[in-house]
Structure formats: C-alpha cells, structure tokens
Amino acid sequence: MKKSILSIALLAGTAMTAAPALAQQAGDITLGFGLHQVAPKSNNGTLAGGEVNIGDSTRPTFTAEYFVRDNIGIELLAALPFKHTVNISGMGDVGTVKHLPPVISLQYHFPTSSNFTPFVGAGLNYTAFFSEKATGALAGSTLSLDDSWGLALHAGVDYKISEHGALRADIRWIDINSDVTQNGTKIGKVEIDPVVVGFAYVYKF
Fold first, then answer.
1. 169 and 142 Cβ atoms separated by less than 8 Å
2. What is the predicted pLDDT for the residue at 15?
3. Rounded to two decimals, what is the model's pTM?
4. Which of 164, 182, 193, 196 is deepest in the core (most CB within 10 A)?
5. According to the 3-state scheme, what is the secondary structure of 146-173?
6. 75: pLDDT confidence band, cut at 50, 70 and 90?
7. What's phi and psi for 92, nearest 5 deg?
C-alpha cells in the first residue's frame, strides 16, 4: 500500500514540472473503468468490548466526469459492492458486510505539456451498508451497520495513450464511520476511514 501511494505521488510530481498547456476543456466528458482496493485503517474501534479490524476488499469501479470549466470537473464514483470481513479481538471473524461508497467530487486537473496530467479533488461520500451477516461467536444474531456521510479526498495522475484514452493511477481517502447494532442494541461504533488505491482506463468524449 505504501509503495502504491509513493508511486502515484512521484508520477504526479514529475508531471507537474512540465510547462503549462490546456489539459481538459469545458464540456468534455470522461468515463473511467478500473479496479480499486478499499483498505480500512488499522484498529477500527471497539465492538462488544473487543478491538475491531475490518478486512480489505477489491472490486471493479466506474467514474464519470463532466468538465464545467477548463481543467475543472465534477466526478461521480461508483463501484460493484465491496465485501469486508469483520474481526473482533478475542472472538475472531464475527461477520461480513457489503457496502457501496458513491462519491461526488470537484476536481482540478493540472495542465501540462507532457502526456502526464495530475489532478486533485475533494467531495462528499455516502456509504450504504447492506447484507450484514453474523458468523463465528456472533452467529445466530442480527448485525446492522448505519449508513455514513463523510468527506472524501482524491489525487492521481492520467497518462495519455491515445487521442481519447488515458491510463489512470489514483488514491482516495474517505471518512466512513458507522454505528453497529446487534439484535437491535448498539454495541459500538466502527471508524473505517479507508484508503482506496487503484488503476483505471479513462476515455474522453
């Protein structure tokens, strides 16, 4: 994970040293198709008196971005459902949960004269949890996670490979927190706050 973050940062830094040139024009639309890993932070809180750790998950992702000004776009992120294992210290794996984390962001694409175009963005995330399933020590009970609203940050770099196509490497941080109930009784709160790293193919219309 650290190597992926460092690689993206180095690519963005290299591209930003190039001389200015127009990267994206107002009215452009891009669609992205990729694969991303959601990696929750370590130590995700306490449930039923034990430390919680939530596992990683990798799924296909999709983006659509509309440029409202030259180099400034509004992007929507979507994905197939991510599935995570929930582990409580002393109990082992106690359940699984799926979620969808759509994000809408305002992004700035730095103009360069090279094939590299770095960008940064910030926006709002809504995470919907569903298909919660209790296993192991909690088998037979009903688990539920509340949906979450939070800030999302985004950075990455596009490498142009054709007139309309580019390869993208990017990283996001998303603020995701959720109250957890077991059989209708609150047993704690999880702070997921994942880093999302991946690659995509982006097509410009």
1. no
2. 44
3. 0.84
4. 196
5. CCEEEEEEEEEEEEECCCCEEEEEEEEE
6. very high
7. 80, -155
Give the pLDDT score at 20.
42
pLDDT digits (tens, 9 = 90+) for 178-187: 999 999 999 9
Q: What is the pLDDT of residues 12-39, one digit of tens each?
A: 454 444 434 446 899 999 999 999 999 9
- CA 3 from centroid of its chain's CA atoms: 17
Q: Which domain holds residue 136?
A: 2-204
Distance between CA atoms of 128 and 130, rounded to whole angstroms? 7
In 133-152, which positions are buried (b, 16+ CB within 10 angstroms) versus exposed (e)?
ebbeebeeeebbbeebebeb
**Confidence band (pLDDT; 50, 70, 90) for 59?**
very high
CATH number at residue 70: 2.40.160.20
> Tokens 């609150």 appear where?
186
Distance CA 133, CA 184 (A): 14
The identity of residue 104, as a single letter, is I
